[in-house]
Structures are given as structure tokens and as C-alpha cells.
């Protein structure tokens, strides 16, 4: 319970007005959301293959992994560092059950059998890890999930029978049906977009469904929820089940994207990258992870050129990421979204003309702001 | 002790049998049947000693980590970076001056200084905010890792063992009996034994300082209720700084030890951060005896595991952690 306060997760008061607003389609009255959706849909017309896959598809995949972390951390108050591990497990399972260049390992199932198998196994894996992690709270959860991630990384490095050691599994086959190569740039982009959107709306829906509200209650005050008759640990484990499934979906997309999977992609540093993405974007709303992922991918792709242009060593990309991360954690506990919201608030308090609804929102926001300290 | 036996007779029996078996394995000359099943005794003894001395190294890292957490609830996930920083400093000093002992002193002082800076600039500003501390220290560890990669490159460094510690010693442990009836004794690197003894001394000194001195009393009181302690007139912020410096300095010393035993390279920071995490999860957060027990268990599991079940060595350590979490989520030696 102390974590909820530490995490500075703003508690959304569910007044009757807001509930009726929340019940509707999310952001349906927000023109910006429509514009983003339209741009994402017509992206293949604008962007070339490099941008489509290397920037946007990668952003959406990483964003989906970070979304599963956001769901656990933002609504459940549980910061899990093993979401990438679950995704990596799912990716490995696709490679093991499906078709790949390592014929002695892969079982050669068709993708429509291998993928559900991978999703199921990865969800079970994540649920077991979650069941272990919910025995603890706050910082202990972080440590245990980090330890699970590290154990999986070292295990994949050492195990040659299933995971093929540190070389990993290469040339993983991608689906090919109805005469379409689904790994070609444009179809793959749409698959990724569809899955990411599905996950986004699922998280958004669950956050307003009875289960999500109960989960947020558990986050804010587990003892009171237990006294009300809610099974606190069952809610937490159920949150892990859902988050694991989301992460597993992203893992399948990731292995199709790179066509290979190796321990390097499930390393501890990569696990922490997912946390960075989620925190930089903001872990209070489902859109945050995608914003964080976009920033991360852009930095990762262009930091080298940018640093070289400034006359610096291009290899200091991680330094840049680390410093940016530090700055965001120091000044905004709510990531880029938090920065943007506080900027908007300042704009609005500057302009006297604010409608009633917005005025109330900004009141709520400023009370959060004082909470932030 | 007797109360434990009375309360858990079955566990006590298991423990006694395990100790007896272990003692027999260490001191007896193995009959042929055991050698056939287990491999040579020399291999076993070497793995055992490697495990114990590695446990000593883990203890040095984890004790600082757990000390800082125990008193201040400060989660320092940059602890591994302090370890690696201490190692690099120690390497630079030992190369520049040729003195092994001096490298310990300088590494201790410099990492303690970094620790003080961390405490004053970072942790004091976010007291009681676990999650933010975690994030900030993760960010710091990324920055530190990249700065160290920048300064030292990706090479492997090994700190030169001083001449008076080079070479093996013969221990009074029989590994085998020659056909002529002459016993063969175990030979083991002296430096590892010396370092292990030193870490035991440090551990005992820390335990004594915490449990038998006035400053230790203040620290323990701070663990339990820091507000009341501050109200009694103790300058608690000063205590925090001292403890943080000590914990960070221990990580630096461990870095020199690790650089002598093994090697220093990028990635070791995360390895030792994880090792100390697992050690304190097993032993119990904030407990010095817990860190010692956890370090011993994890060191032994890693080394014995890597000899007898090489593929699954890491998984064994992990399984131990899972088992402890399942039975005692608060760790083996924690009151709460």
C-alpha cells in the first residue's frame, strides 16, 4: 500500500458524471486521438519500409510489452521487470514449436498451432512468476521479477537442448497464407498495429470494468479490499495472467519481426529497457508506454547520428537514454504524459477561459500536483 | 538451539544428518563407490572451497546492500555499479603503485565518497519513496555503466595478486591416498583463503559493531523507529551518511576482491547486483547474518552446481530463491 503512494499513481475519483463519461468509448470526443488513429492507419502511404518496420512496428511491439508492465504497475501497483522475459519466452516457444533454421530443435508445427501454444505457455509462465511475485510487495516485487528475468536469461544462455545456448534460434518462419506474405512490410505493420490497438483497448476497457476497478482498489488499499471480501491475491494474480498474455502477444510479434531470438533479446538490460519505456512514457495511462516506446526507438535509431553531428562519440547512446530517464524520473513522476499534463495545466490556468468540466479536471489535477510534491 | 530442536525435531534431525554427511564428505577418504558416483574428491573439495570463498565475496557486496536497505529503506540498485567502480579504481591503483593493499584503501575511500554523494544528492531528496529510488538508481546504474565503459573500454581486467599471496597452500584435507599409502592433500590458492578470512573478519566486526557498540545501537534503533531516534537528539542524517559510506565502501572493497579472484568487465555490475539481490532475498533484507547465510548458500549452490549440473547451475540458485520465497517470504533470518 505504501507503494501506491510512492508510485504517485493518481487515484481517479469515480463520481457519477465521470463514470458515465468513462462508460463511453475512450477518447471518442478527442480529435487528437482520431488524428493519431488516422495517421497510424494510413502510415504505409507516408512512410517507407524502414520507417514502417524499424520505427513504427518496433515502437508498437515494445509499446505493447511496456503496456503489460503499465497495466501491472499503474492499475495493480506491482512493478514487474519480467514482462520482457515473458515476451521472450513466448518468442522462444514460437521458434521451438514452429519452423526455424534449427531443425533439430524446432518441432515444425504450423504457425496457427505454434502461436496459441506459445501464448498459452508464456501466459502460464508469467502467471507462475506472478504468483511468486504477489507474495511480496513494493521493492521486493521489483527484485524478484528482476531475478526471474535474470535467471531466464542465464538459463537460455546455458541450455542447448531447447534454447540453443547463446546463439539462439535463427531463421524463424513467419506466416504465409491466403497468398499473402504476412511478414512483408505493409501486412506486418497492420498485424502489429491491430494487436497493439487490441491490447490498448483491452487494457483501457479492463481498467473501467469491475475487475479493473477492484484491482485499483487493491492497489490503493489492500486491507480495505480484503475486508470488503475481495480476494486480494487472486486479483493480483489475475492481473498477471492478463499482463502475461499481452506480453506474450508482443513476444510473438517480436520473433516474427526479427525472425530470430537469442538470449541477448531477453537480457537484464533489455528487461530494464521495458521499465524505462513505461516510466518515460508514463505508467498511469495506457497510451504512456507507446509514447515512451516511440521516444526510445527514435533515440536508439538516431542518437548515434545525432551525437556524431554534435561532435560526440556516437556510442554514448545509452548515456543519453540514462540521463534522459534520470531527468524524467527526477522532475516528473508521471513520465512524458505527466510533463505534458502539467504544461497544459499551466497553460490553462494562464488562460481564464476554461469550461466547467475542464476547470474541475484541472482542480483534480492540481490536487494531484500537490500530491506529487 | 535446544529450543529449535524441541520445536522442530524433524528439521533438527535433517540438519544434523546433513552436517554429518557434509563433514564425512570433507574429511574422509572417499571409497571407490563414492568416487564412481560423485567424481573425484579433489573436484568436490575445490568446488566446495570455491563456493565458500565466492560466498565471502558475495557477502562483501550484499552486506553493504543490505546494511543500506536495513537502516534507511534505501533501495540502491546502483550497488553493482559501485562494485565495478571499486574494482576499476583498485585496478588503476594497483597498476600505478603496485600495491595491492593500497588499492583496497583507495577503492574503499572513493566508493564511499560516491556513496555519500548518492545519499546526499539523491536519496535524501526522496526519502520513503521506494519506487522513485528504484527508478533513479536504475537510471544512475545505466549512466555509470556507460561512463565506465567509456573510461575503461570493454576489456577484461584482472588485478595482480601480490607476490606474497601467489601460489597454493596445502590444506590438511586428504583428497586421495596414493597406491603407496601416502596421503595426497588438497592444494588451494592462498589468496582466496586470505580474502575469505578477511571477509569473515569484516562480517564479524560489522556484527559486533552493530550489536555491541553505541553507534550500532543507534543504527539498530534507526532501523526500528527513526522518528523517535531523531527526537532523542541523534543526528540521524549524519548516521545515514556514515552507514551509506560504509555500505558503498564495502561494495568498492568487494570490487577489488572480485577483480583479484575473477575479472572486471562491463556486465559484472549487473551480475553482482543480481547476486546481492538473490543473497538478500534468501537471507532476509536488512540482516547481516542473513546476508552471510544467503551468500554462503548461493556461493555453494553456484559452484557445486557448475561442477555437477553445469547446465542448470543458475537455475539451482534461482530454485533456492523460489523455495525460500515459498516457505519464508521474508527471508531465512529476518525477524519480521
TrEMBL record, chain A:
Localisation: Cell membrane
Q: Which domain of life is it from?
A: Bacteria
Q: Where is the composition biased (Low complexity)?
A: 364-373
Q: How does it sit in the membrane?
A: Multi-pass membrane protein
> Which segments carry the region annotation Disordered?
349-373
- Which InterPro entries does the record match to this protein? ABC_transp_permease, LivM-like
Question: Where are the membrane-spanning stretches?
Answer: 32-57, 69-97, 109-132, 139-156, 188-206, 237-258, 264-283, 290-308, 320-340
Record GO cellular component, one term: plasma membrane
Principal place where this protein is found?
A: membrane
**Carries keyword Hydrolase?**
no
Q: Does the keyword Nucleotide-binding apply?
A: yes
Q: What are the UniProt keywords, alphabetically? A: ATP-binding, Cell membrane, Membrane, Nucleotide-binding, Transmembrane, Transmembrane helix
CDD domains, per database record: TM_PBP1_LivM_like
Q: Name one GO molecular function term.
A: branched-chain amino acid transmembrane transporter activity
PANTHER family per the UniProt record, alphabetical: ABC TRANSPORTER ATP-BINDING PROTEIN (PTHR30482:SF17), HIGH-AFFINITY BRANCHED-CHAIN AMINO ACID TRANSPORT SYSTEM PERMEASE (PTHR30482)
- The protein here is known as ABC transporter ATP-binding protein
Q: Which organism is it from?
A: Bradyrhizobium canariense
Amino acid at each position: 500500500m505504501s507503494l501506491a503512494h510512492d508510485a504517485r499513481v493518481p487515484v481517479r475519483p469515480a463520481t457519477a458524471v465521470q463514470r458515465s463519461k468513462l462508460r463511453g468509448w475512450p477518447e471518442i470526443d478527442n480529435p487528437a486521438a482520431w488524428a493519431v488513429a488516422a495517421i497510424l492507419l494510413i502510415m504505409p502511404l507516408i512512410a517507407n519500409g524502414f520507417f514502417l518496420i524499424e520505427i513504427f512496428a518496433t515502437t508498437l511491439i515494445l509499446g505493447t510489452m511496456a503496456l503489460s508492465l503499465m497495466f501491472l504497475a499503474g492499475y495493480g501497483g506491482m512493478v514487474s521487470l519480467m514482462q520482457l522475459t515473458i515476451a521472450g519466452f513466448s518468442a522462444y516457444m514460437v521458434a521451438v514449436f514452429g519452423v526455424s533454421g534449427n531443425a533439430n530443435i524446432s518441432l515444425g508445427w504450423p504457425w496457427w498451432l505454434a502461436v496459441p501454444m506459445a501464448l498459452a505457455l508464456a501466459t502460464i509462465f508469467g502467471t507462475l512468476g506472478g504468483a511468486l511475485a504477489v507474495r511480496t510487495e513494493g521493492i521486493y516485487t521489483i527484485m524478484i521479477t528482476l531475478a526471474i528475468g535474470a535467471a531466464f536469461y542465464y538459463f537460455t544462455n546455458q541450455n542447448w537442448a531447447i534454447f540453443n545456448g547463446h546463439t539462439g534460434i535463427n531463421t524463424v518462419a513467419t506466416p504465409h497464407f491466403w497468398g499473402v506474405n504476412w511478414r512483408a512490410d505493409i501486412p506486418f505493420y497492420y498485424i502489429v498495429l491491430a494487436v497493439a490497438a487490441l491490447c490498448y483497448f483491452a487494457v483501457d476497457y479492463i481498467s473501467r470494468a469491475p475487475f479493473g476497478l477492484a484491482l485499483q482498489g487493491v492497489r490503493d488499499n489492500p486491507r480495505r479490499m480484503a475486508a470488503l471480501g475481495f480476494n486480494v491475491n487472486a486479483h493480483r494474480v489475475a492481473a498477471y495472467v492478463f499482463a502475461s498474455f499481452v506480453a506474450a502477444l508482443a513476444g510473438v510479434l517480436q520473433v516474427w519481426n526479427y525472425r530470430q531470438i537469442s538470449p541477448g533479446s531477453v537480457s537484464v538490460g533489455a528487461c530494464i529497457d521495458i521499465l524505462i519505456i513505461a516510466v518515460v512514457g508514463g505508467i498511469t495511462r495506457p497510451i504512456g508506454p507507446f509514447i515512451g516506446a516511440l521516444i526510445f526507438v527514435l533515440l536508439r535509431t538516431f542518437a548515434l547520428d545525432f551525437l556524431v553531428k554534435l561532435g560526440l562519440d556516437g556510442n554514448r547512446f545509452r548515456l543519453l537514454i540514462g540521463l534522459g530517464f534520470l531527468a524524467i524520473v527526477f522532475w516528473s513522476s508521471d513520465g512524458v504524459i505527466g510533463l505534458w499534463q502539467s504544461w497544459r495545466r499551466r497553460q490553462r490556468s494562464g488562460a481564464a477561459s476554461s469550461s466547467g468540466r475542464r476547470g474541475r479536471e484541472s482542480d483534480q489535477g492540481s490536487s494531484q500536483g500537490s500530491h506529487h510534491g | 538451539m535446544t529450543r529449535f530442536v524441541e520445536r522442530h525435531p524433524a528439521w533438527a534431525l535433517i540438519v544434523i544428518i546433513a552436517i554429518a554427511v557434509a563433514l564425512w564428505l570433507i574429511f574422509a577418504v572417499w571409497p571407490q563407490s563414492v568416487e564412481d558416483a560423485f567424481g573425484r574428491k579433489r573436484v568436490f573439495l575445490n568446488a566446495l572451497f570455491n563456493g565458500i570463498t565466492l560466498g565471502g565475496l558475495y557477502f562483501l557486496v550484499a552486506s553493504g546492500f543490505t546494511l543500506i536497505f536495513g537502516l534507511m529503506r534505501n533501495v540502491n540498485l546502483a550497488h553493482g555499479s559501485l562494485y565495478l567502480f571499486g574494482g576499476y579504481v583498485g585496478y588503476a591503483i594497483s597498476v600505478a603503485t603496485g600495491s595491492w593493499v593500497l588499492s583496497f584503501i583507495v577503492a574503499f575511500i572513493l566508493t564511499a565518497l560516491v556513496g555519500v554523494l548518492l545519499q546526499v544528492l539523491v536519496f535524501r531528496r526522496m526519502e520513503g519513496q521506494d519506487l522513485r529510488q528504484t527508478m533513479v538508481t536504475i537510471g544512475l546504474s545505466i549512466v555509470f555503466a556507460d561512463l565506465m565503459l567509456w573510461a575503461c573500454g570493454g576489456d577484461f581486467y584482472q588485478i595482480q595478486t601480490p607476490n606474497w599471496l601467489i601460489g597454493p597452500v596445502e590444506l590438511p584435507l586428504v583428497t586421495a591416498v596414493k597406491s603407496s599409502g601416502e596421503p595426497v592433500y588438497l592444494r588451494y590458492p592462498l589468496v582466496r583463503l586470505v580474502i575469505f578470512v578477511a571477509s569473515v573478519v569484516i562480517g564479524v566486526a560489522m556484527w559486533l559493531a552493530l550489536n555491541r557498540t553505541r553507534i550500532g545501537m543507534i543504527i539498530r534503533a534507526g532501523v526500528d523507529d527513526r522518528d523517535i531516534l531523531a527526537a532523542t537528539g541523534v543526528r540521524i542524517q549524519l548516521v545515514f551518511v556514515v552507514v551509506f559510506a560504509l555500505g558503498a565502501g564495502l561494495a568498492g572493497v568487494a570490487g577489488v576482491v572480485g577483480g583479484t579472484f575473477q575479472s572486471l568487465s562491463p556486465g559484472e555490475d549487473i551480475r553482482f547486483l543480481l547476486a546481492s539481490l538473490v543473497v538478500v532475498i534468501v537471507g532476509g533484507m536488512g540482516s547481516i547474518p542473513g546476508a552471510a547465510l544467503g551468500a554462503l548458500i548461493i556461493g555453494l549452490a553456484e559452484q557445486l552446481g557448475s561442477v555437477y549440473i553445469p547446465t542448470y547451475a543458475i537455475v539451482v540458485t534461482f530454485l533456492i530463491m523460489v523455495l525460500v520465497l515459498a516457505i519464508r517470504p521474508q527471508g531465512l533470518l529476518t525477524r519480521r
